[in-house]
Amino acid sequence: MAMTIRRIIPTKEEGFVLKKAQGEFIRNGVTDIKCPRCGKNLVYEYGENWEMTHCSDIECISLVLRGI
Ligand SMILES: [Zn+2]
């Protein structure tokens, strides 16, 4: 996975929101939780050895949950 896009590391509180959203993505495939920083939709992506939840705004926050 190319990580050429610079993303912003979330605060502790924002990280909790992203982790909660990730749980909903895994269980339901979707989430109603919005980005705690800007209010846009969140995106969950994963591969064999990595997963991350991030804002749909590429210049906003991103949480890498494992791998990379
Ligand atoms: Zn955002």
What does this protein look like?
This protein is of the alpha+beta class and 68 residues long. The chain has one domain. 25% of the residues lie in helices and 22% in strands. A 3-stranded antiparallel sheet has the order 1-2-3, with helices on one face. A hairpin with a 4-residue loop joins β1 and β2. The radius of gyration is 11 Å and the shape is globular. The chain starts with 11 loop residues before the first helix and ends with a strand. The model has no long low-confidence stretch (mean pLDDT 89). Bound molecules: zinc ion (ZN).
Question: What is this structure, in a nutshell?
Answer:
By secondary structure, this protein is an alpha+beta fold. Helices cover 25% and strands 22% of the residues.
Gross morphology is: globular
Mean pLDDT: 89
Structural class: alpha+beta
Cα-to-Cα separation, first versus last residue: 8 Å
What's the alpha carbon Rg, rounded to whole Å?
11 Å
Number of helical stretches of at least 4 residues: 1
Give the strand tally: 3
Number of domains: 1
Listed once per kind, the bound small molecules are:
zinc ion
Descriptive tags:
single chain; 68 residues; alpha+beta; 3-stranded antiparallel β-sheet; 1 helix; 3 strands; 22% strand; binds zinc ion
Secondary-structure blueprint of this entry?
Elements: H1 12-28, E1 42-46, E2 51-55, E3 62-66
Antiparallel strand pairs: 1-2, 2-3
The protein binds zinc ion (ZN).
The site of zinc ion has 8 residues, from loops.
